[in-house]
Amino acid sequence: MIVLAIGAHPDDIEISCAGTLAKLKQAGHEVVLCHVCKGDKGHYHIPPSELTDIRRKEAEEAGGVIGSRVLTLGFGDGEVIADNQENRMKFIDLIREVHPDLVITHAPNDYMPDHIAVSHLVFYATFFATLPHFVTDRPAAAKVPGLYYMDNLSGLGFEPTFYVDVTDHFATKLEMLKKHQSQLVWLKEHDGVDIVDFVDALGKTRGIQAGCAYAEGFVQHLVWTRPNAVRFPV
C-alpha cells in the first residue's frame, strides 16, 4: 500500500501524524511525505531564500528517519491560498506521481489559511486526478484514494473518528520532529510554544481517549466511493 501524507509546511506532518507514518512504514507500506509550501517565511531572522534551503534539508532529514521519500510543491508560505485551476493542477499532478492508496492531510477547519487551502486542494485533486481530460505531465490516476484528516494543532475543533496507538513509535515521531530545528526556534519565539512538549501533551491526551499511552487521532472523509476505497492499515 502507498500512503501519501500532505502537509502545508515542512513540520506539519511530523506534528500531527508522524507516529502513524512510522508505524505504517515499519509494517511494510510505502510512505511518501509532501510539504506544499517551502516554509520560507517562518522565522524572524533568517531570510526566505536561506530559510527555504534550511527547511528543505530539515524535511529530508525527518523523512530519512523512517526511510521515506520527501517531496515539495514549492509554494511560498501564504501563496497556496489561491484556490485556482493552476494550483489545482499541481495537486492533481502530485497524486498522479505518487499513485497513493491512502492520503492523509489537514482537516478543513484547521487553524491557518495554508492548512485550510491544502485540505481543500487535496480533496479536489484526489478525485479529479482520475479524469484523463484534466491534462498534466502524467497519465490519470487509476483510482480515488481513501482520504483521512490528521489532527488539528492542539486538537481544537477536531473529534477523531478513530485513533492509532503510536506508543511504540512516539519516540520516532519526536526524533522526526526534532529535525526541524529552525521551527522549534520559530514556534518558541512567535507563539511561545515548546512544540516538542506540546506534541507530547497532545499525544498523551489522545492516548487517554484511546486507552493507550500515546495515540494520534484521525477523521475519515466519508463521502460516496471514499469509505470503501481503502481500509486504514493499522
TrEMBL record:
Keywords linked to the UniProt accession: Hydrolase
**Entry keyword Hydrolase:** yes
One Pfam match: PIG-L
Does the entry feature the keyword Glycosyltransferase, yes or no?
no
Judging by the UniProt lineage, the source's domain of life is: Bacteria
Q: What is its EC number?
A: 3.5.1.-
**GO MF terms on file?**
hydrolase activity
Name the record gives this protein: PIG-L deacetylase family protein
User: Where does this protein come from, organism-wise?
Assistant: Paenibacillus oleatilyticus
